[in-house]
């Protein structure tokens, strides 16, 4: 594992190192303005604007790369443990050599984003000159004289006040440009320190990790060795006896294939013949079906005619039956009359015989 010193780097010396020169310049500006060490005409509002720019600079110091290097170095062991676990979990053996396969750049990219705010660091260099220019315009606006005077002497006095105010207002822009240069110096210095530390760690783990060129070269070598081993095995296997046996097997396979081809052709011809016979049988059956349908239609017509004739015969037979039934009823009625007459005659004869017998007695 990459050795990191257990000694912690203090944050405050780096903070005061970045703040030192801007603070000293501000104190000197105050001394020049109020202690008359050097005659500089500077207004109070310009002093206040520069103080505000300095306070904003102090808030941004914690996101400077030189200050963030202390956080990077103090917590580096935890990242190195994660890198070690990652490399152990992604070991790959190629051609008898075991190394780790992967990319550890993502660990350091994520880690460097946690030690500071990159958004603040990216805008700081351009923000301080902008604040200085803004302070200059604010100072000019505050010191802007009243040009509504009527006399020329008063107007010249107002112009003198304006020019002196503009002169002092430019100190804010100068101070903002200096802060930008000072920030950029420590930003580049801190980034260089962080990058050098990361490069040393990568150099330490370089021999423990596969790179693309090594993988390609070792893969080619391994494939070549496998091919050579395969050729040696083939040379040992492919002997004259093996070739002779292989020829026999091939001849047997060819004969088997030819026999199967012949059997297939015979089966195909037989199937074709059966198909043709079946087709003819279907055609003959269809013709017979047509004849049968025609005969059935003729029989149907004959049956219709026969049914109509039978209906007529049944009607006539019904008529004859009715006439015969009437004649029978009339005959029966005559028989009944005759029977009644005979019955009456018989009774009369019997009564006469009785009377005659009585008379004879």
List strands and helices in order, with pairings.
Blueprint: H1 12-34, H2 44-60, H3 65-74, H4 76-89, E1 91-94, E2 97-100, H5 105-114, H6 118-142, H7 152-206, H8 212-237, H9 240-360
Antiparallel strand pairs: 1-2
Helix pairs in contact: 1-2, 2-6, 2-7, 3-7, 6-7
Overall pLDDT confidence:
76
* Contiguous uncertain segments of 5+ residues: none
The best one-word shape is elongated
How many E strands?
A: 2
Key terms for this structure?
mainly alpha, single chain, 361 residues, elongated
Describe the structure.
The chain is mainly alpha-helical. It has a domain at 12-75 and 115-206. It is 83% helix and 2% strand. The protein has helices spanning 12-34, 44-60, 65-74, 76-89, 105-114, 118-142, 152-206, 212-237, 240-360; strands at residues 91-94, 97-100. Strands 1-2 form a two-stranded antiparallel sheet. β1 (91-94) and β2 (97-100) form a beta hairpin. α2 runs parallel beside α7. It is elongated. The relative contact order is 0.07.
């Amino acid at each position: 594992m990459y050795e990191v010193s257990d000694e912690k780097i203090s944050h405050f010396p780096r903070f005061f190192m970045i703040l030192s020169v801007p603070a000293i310049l501000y104190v000197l500006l105050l001394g020049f303005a109020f202690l008359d060490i050097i005659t500089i005409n500077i207004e109070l509002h310009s002093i206040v604007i520069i103080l505000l720019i300095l306070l904003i600079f102090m808030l941004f110091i914690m996101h400077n790369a030189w200050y963030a290097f202390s956080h990077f170095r103090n917590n580096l062991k935890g990242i190195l443990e994660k890198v070690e676990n990652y490399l152990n979990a992604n070991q790959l053996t190629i051609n008898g050599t075991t190394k780790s396969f992967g990319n550890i750049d993502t660990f350091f990219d994520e880690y460097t984003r946690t030690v500071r705010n990159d958004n603040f660091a990216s805008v700081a260099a351009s923000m301080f000159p902008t604040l200085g220019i803004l302070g200059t315009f604010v100072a000019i606006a505050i010191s802007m004289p009243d040009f509504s005077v009527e006399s020329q002497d008063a107007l010249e006095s107002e112009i003198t006040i304006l020019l002196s105010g503009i002169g002092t207002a430019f100190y804010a822009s100068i101070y903002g440009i200096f802060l930008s240069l000072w920030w950029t110096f420590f930003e580049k210095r801190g980034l260089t320190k962080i990058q050098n530390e990361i490069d040393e760690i990568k150099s330490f783990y370089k021999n423990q990790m596969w790179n693309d060129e090594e993988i390609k070269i070792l893969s080619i070598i391994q494939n070549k060795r496998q091919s050579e081993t395969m050729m040696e095995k083939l040379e040992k296997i492919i002997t004259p006896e093996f070739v002779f046996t292989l020829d026999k097997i091939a001849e047997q396979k060819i004969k088997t294939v030819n026999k199967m081809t012949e059997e297939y052709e015979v089966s195909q011809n037989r199937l074709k013949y059966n198909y043709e016979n079946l087709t003819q049988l279907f055609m003959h059956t269809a013709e017979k079906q047509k004849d049968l349908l025609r005969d059935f239609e003729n029989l149907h017509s004959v049956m219709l005619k026969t049914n109509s004739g039978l209906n007529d015969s049944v009607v006539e037979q019904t008529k004859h039956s009715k006439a015969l039934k009437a004649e029978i009823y009339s005959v029966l009625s005559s028989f009944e009359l005759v029977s009644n007459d005979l019955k009456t005659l018989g009774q009369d004869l019997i009564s006469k015989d009785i009377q005659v017998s009585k008379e004879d007695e």
